[in-house]
Predict the 3D structure of the following.
Amino acid sequence: MVRRRVKAKARPPEGEPSGNVTRMRTKVCMVGDGAVGKSSLVRRYVLDVFDDSYLRTLGTKVLKKTIDLEFPRDRIAIQLTATIWDIMGHTEFRHLVADTYFAGAKGILAVADLTRRETLVNLAGWIDGVRQVAGNVPVLMVVNKGDLSDRATFGPAEVREVAEGFGCPHVTTSAKTGKMVPAAFRILGTMIAAAGLGLSADETAAPIAARST
Ligand SMILES: Nc1nc2c(ncn2[C@@H]2O[C@H](COP(=O)(O)OP(=O)(O)OP(=O)(O)O)[C@@H](O)[C@H]2O)c(=O)[nH]1
Ligand SMILES: [Mg+2]
């Protein structure tokens, strides 16, 4: 398929054949309490590795990844280059760095740990913290450590309720097995691209459904 570059925000006129690629850049912030697996998710996604040992993130770390997305209904292909900002999961640190860390964020991966209920409860503080600086940007709620379901401290109904409270979708991931990790970043990328291009929510749903397994 031959792909042409189009300007961001441009939408192809009705009847134009598929094949346009829109390049976008974006900033994504990982948030959530200490040891929920923020760095592990980024490492799994960007480098496809996992380490059982816990090395607390000191300050912040930034990695980059390009995500290819398609919006079949609009016949738009997006190449989204995401800088993924990984933060140390401590509330005091959040208060110290919020302005610089969250400035310009276009999307949030808000991570909780399935084995520690308080990390789900604390997501509100993290999400509010980003939204105070970056505005009402897309949020994807991630319940990580899905491989430890025998040690779960909350169930799907509670996750749904919390996600509905934030008005955002949610997924369960495992940085250890890799399950749903690329899908999670892809879903957030799709939400960001859709918001940037002014596409509607149902257009956003198509690529998510097609790629979330
Ligand atoms: N079983 C299991 N362990 C995980 C998973 N993700 C992360 N871990 C482990 O959880 C611990 C914490 O992971 P990190 O990725 O360092 O957590 P973090 O959220 O970046 O922590 P801070 O940098 O302190 O905020 C490590 O020992 C990881 O190996 C997972 O999906 N399953
Ligand atoms: Mg970390």
